[in-house]
Every structure is written in C-alpha cells, then in structure tokens.
Amino acid sequence: MLFLNDPITFIAGWMRTLLSGWGLSSGLVTVIIYILGITVLIIFAMALDIMLVWVERKVVARFQDRLGPNRIGPFGLIQPFADIIKLVIKEDITPAGADKLLYNLGPVLAIASVIILWAILPLSSRIFGVDLNVAVLYLVAAGALGTLSIIVGGWASNNKYALLGAFRMVANMVSYEIPMVVVLLIPTILANSMSVQDITVAQSGMWFAILSPLAFIIFLISAIAELGRSPFDLNEAESEIVAGFHIEYTGMKFGLFYAGELLHAFTFGGFIAVLFFGGYGGFFGLENIGFFSWLNNPFVQAVVFLVKAMFGYWVIMWVKYSMPRIRIDHMLAFNWKFLTPLALVVLVNTAVLSKVLIGLPNWGYVLGMFFSNIVIGLITVEILRAYGRKQRKAEANLNPQRAQN
Amino acid sequence: MTADRIIFILCAALILASGLMVVITRKLIHAALWLVAALFGVAILYAILQASFLAVVQVVVYIGAIAILFIFAVMLTRREMLDKGAQTRSNWWLPALLGFLILVGLVFLILGQPAFAQPAAALPAGIDTLRSLGTALISPDAYVLPFEVASVLLLAALVGAVYIATGKKE
Asked: Using the beta-carbon criterion (under 8 Å), do A174 and B65 form an inter-chain contact?
C-alpha cells in the first residue's frame, strides 16, 4: 500500500536499504539515488517525447483533413521509431566554416533547456523532481537557456538564413519574456507563493484560469511566442528564410531541435495546467468527499496532470495549425503596445483586488476577480475598436480612392 | 569529502577556467560564451549556499539578459571577430606579480578571520528565505530606501534610452 500512496519515497527507501546493505557510505548512496532519479525522469520525458512526434503528426493531419501516419503499426504508432532510425542513419554534415564546438553545442542546449524544466514539473503531490520556492522564476531562467541555444546554433552554422533566424528569435523571446514574467506574478499573488506545489494546492477550490482569465490568455500567447511556434515562428519561417536557425543541421542534430520543440510545447501545456487549471488537483473540493478520495492517489493525480497538459499542448497545436505567421513589426508592436500594458494592468488589478476582497466570502472573492477581468477585457476591446476605426479613417483621408473600393 | 564539497570544487574550477578563457580566447563570441559559463558557475555556487532566489535571478538577469545582449551585439558586428595580435606585452610579469601579491594578501586576511574556520550555522527549519528577502526589501527599517532608489535609477535609464532611441522629430 505504501508504494501506491508514495511511490518515490518507497523506492528511494528500498534502494537506500539495498545499497547500504552492500556497504556503501550514506553520502554516496544519496548521490546514487539522486542520479538514478534524475535519469529516470529524463528517460520518462524523452520516451514521452517520442510519442509526441506521433501525436503532433496525427493532430496536424486532422487539422489539415488528412490521415497522418497510418502505415506502420496500429494507427501508425510505430512511425516515430521509423523516423528516429531514419534520422540516426542520415549523414551528419557540418558546414564548411562552421564553428565546430558551438555548432554541436546548439542542439544539446536546445533539448537541455527543456529537460531542466521537468525538474520542477509537479506530476502529482508525491511525484515531482524538486519543490523549488522560486519555481516560477526558474521557468523564466530555463527560457533564457533556450534562447541561448538558438543563438549559438544560428550563429555557428555560418549561414545567413540561420543567422537571420537567430536574430528574429532573440527579438521575439526577449520581448515576450516581459509579459510572461508579469503574468507569472499573478498566480504567485493569488497563491502567495512561487512554488508550483503551493500554486497547485491553492487551486484546489477554484482554478486561477477562472479567477484571472486574462492572465491565462496572456500567458498562453507569450508561451507560444517563447516556443517560437506559429503564429510566432519567424525564427524558422519556411517561406522566407528556408528553415531559419536549424537550416544546416542534419540527422539527429536536427532531430534534437525538433524533439526539443515538441517537448517544450508539451511542457508549457503542463505549466498552463499547473498555473491556471489546478495541475494534478483542482477538483473543486471533490477529492475531500469520502467516495472520491481515490482522486488523491499520486498515480491518479499524475494521469490527471498528463491529460490536462495534453489539453494545453493541443490548444498550442490548434493555434499553430490555424494561424498564419505574423510580420516581425506586427509581432513587436503587438507585444509592446498591447500585451505588455495589458499584462501590467491585470497585475495591478489582481494585486489590489486580492487585498480589497480579502474579507469577502469565497464566492464574492471569485466573482469579484472574475468580473474585474471581464471588465478589463471589455475596455480593452473597446479601446482596440476605437483605435482601429481611427486607423481606417486616417487611411480613408489619405487615400479616398482606395477607401471607396 | 562530502558531495557538497566535490560540487563546490568542480564548480569553482569551472568558474576559474571559464574566467581565464574569457580573457585568453581569440574569438569574441567564444569569450561571450565562456562568460556565460562563468556566470552559470556562480549561479551554482548560490544554489549550493541555498540562496535559490539569487541563483535563479543570476541566470535570468546575467545569462538571459546581459549575456544574450553581448552575444547579440557581437553577432551584429563583423563576421570574423578575431584578435590576431600578440596576447602578451613585454612587461606582463609586473601585473602578474601585483595580482599574485594581492591574492596572497587577501588569503592572509581571510585566514586571519576567526569566522573563516567555523562552518556556517544551519538555517532554522521552516524559514522561508524568499519571504524574508521580500519582506526585507520593502520594510522601512531594512532596505526599502536603496531598493526604491535603484528602481528610480532604472526608470531614469529607461526614459533616457527611449529618448535616445526615438531621435529628434523633424
């Protein structure tokens, strides 16, 4: 029964007894157990990544009214393994004039910046890497390493398209980091903590997506920008710069960039679930009723978490395969003139209301938070409408001929 | 030798080696990346000292912002940023001697401190360092004044940057 209630502690305790029985010192045993734990977590993430290739290809096929992989294995499930074999046996080309060391470092950093995110991803209340008290900031720091991987890869390739892709990516990521950091403070304020476990527990009554829907939408947009996925895929814009920063990479080196992107998207789906949809919990108090107490089992929680993360991943794919790419000046204007001010307004609103509404009963707090967000949203839409009308009028005055047509 | 100490030694070696590489490498972009490695090593040191907030902020600010700005600036300049001249001057031994003397002096001073020989006192259980830091930054009897002065300074820098970047409207 202990294994079912607390699997990690159970396995760690069993291994500790076993290794100590072999005569190893307790410090060494701790190190071995930690290294094994890290390895298992990484293997889990990478195995999931292999299946994500299949998920992504199947989902994009549905969006484009195709069938997707369906020849190898049932529903094409073996397809990703065939892909891997193909990537591994491809010739590994290093372009002339490339910076050898940095060229090889790029894909490694790309996948590493995603894997380190799994350290703080809470799969369940008892299955997680580490419960950092600065987990929310850690998310931002890992994003910085991701930017670095793309710069390094793009620069070292000795290719102008790769360099252009890297430039665009830096402009993209450095700008969208700001609304993301601002909006990450909202779950922090609502939960009074930066730890993802505390944030999850604080949502057991009500999801933060309901307390602050605007924050959720801003986080989703800036997460997509951080991932460099459509409509923010300027870094690899196929129709303009061929493949962007990874144009020169072949075989498994390209595979690492691709796998990193997929796993990154899924991981951000997981963070959307943790920060705004209650993570592994968030059953609105259902789990405290005796009949539903099985919802507190760590394995059930892990399944709930993975389903929610997959939903977030699906939303990201949905956006990716429905939206055209935006132009770089529009991308920057959208961030600096719209998203960042809106994020700051929502942050101030949340900070003030969380103190003003503190005396109210729970439903008053929830309704107050929710409707304040709706009001801000409506005002934003009105401002945008007035601005758009002004733009169109200016256009009409400038060019009356075109306005008539 | 505990695991902490092994990690510390590895990490200190990383910082020193990358710091050295920053100054002796000939390619400017390599120097910037070695600087990233050195800064990352410092972040690990903070993490060993259980200053998790400082460790993460070190990565966000120094690697995520400053180092990326460096690399970006280097990439925008000439393609081959190679330094082809001699790397030492004829009087290199003088600064080397001075540096060594300063090192000896500092080590001597630090060894003289009685606190140096004692291990650091463990933090009391249940204390949230992040919360204490946050409270200290905004409480009037601690650091609120320096904190606010720094933010005003940054605001002034921001306004100045916007003014310079906008240019004169003719």
From this structure: yes
Token pair for A351: 């900070």
In whole angstroms, how far apart are CA B93 and each of A51, B104, B107? 60, 16, 21
Q: Which amino acid is at A22?
A: W
> Is the CATH number of domain B1-82 3.90.79.10?
no
Location of structure tokens 């998203």 = A339
In chain A, the percentage of residues whose pLDDT exceeds 70 is 98
Q: Residue B119, SS3?
A: coil
Pairwise CA distance, residues B28 & B62, whole Å: 18
Distance CA A319, CA A298 (A): 32
pLDDT tens digit string along A120-159? Answer: 888 888 778 788 888 888 888 888 888 888 888 888 888 8
CB B32 within 8 A of CB B74: yes
Any idea where the domains of chain B sit in the sequence? 1-82, 130-170
**Cα A129–A135–A139 angle (5° rounding)?**
100
d(CA A109, CA A87): 19
| CA distance readout (Å), A269 to A41, A199, A264, B84, B94 | 18, 16, 8, 49, 58
pLDDT in tens, A62-111: 888 888 888 887 888 888 888 888 888 988 888 887 778 888 888 888 89
Query: Number of residue pairs across A and B with CB atoms under 8 Å?
Result: 66
Using the 8-state DSSP alphabet, how is residue A287 labeled?
A: G
In chain B, how many H helices and how many E strands? Answer: 8, 0
Q: Are A150 and A299 in contact (CB under 8 A)?
A: no
Q: Which residue of chain A comes nearest to B34, CA vs CA?
A: A102
Tell me if A215 sits within 8 A of A189, measured CB to CB: no
Q: Is A33 on the interface with B (CB under 8 A)?
A: no
Spatial CB neighbours of B88, under 8 Å, sequence gap ≥ 6: none
**pLDDT at res. B79:** 59
Residue showing tokens 């993975």: A306
CB burial of residue A206 (10 Å; 0-12, 13-18, 19+):
buried
pTM for the structure as a whole? 0.86
Which tens digit of pLDDT belongs to each residue from A340-363? 999 999 999 888 888 888 777 778
ipTM, interface predicted TM-score of the complex: 0.76
CA distance A235 to chain B (A): 15
Chain B residue with minimum CA distance to A132: B52
Rounded to 5 degrees, what angle do the CA atoms A235, A220, A295 make?
130
The span from the CA of A355 to the CA of A333, in Å, is: 33
For the CA atoms of A76, A81, A84, A89, what is the dihedral angle to 10 degrees? -110
Structure confidence by residue, pLDDT tens digits, B107-136: 999 888 887 777 777 777 777 778 888 888
* Residue A176: Cβ-neighbour burial (10 angstroms; 0-12, 13-18, 19+): buried
Is the minimum CB–CB distance between A38 and chain B shorter than 8 Å? no
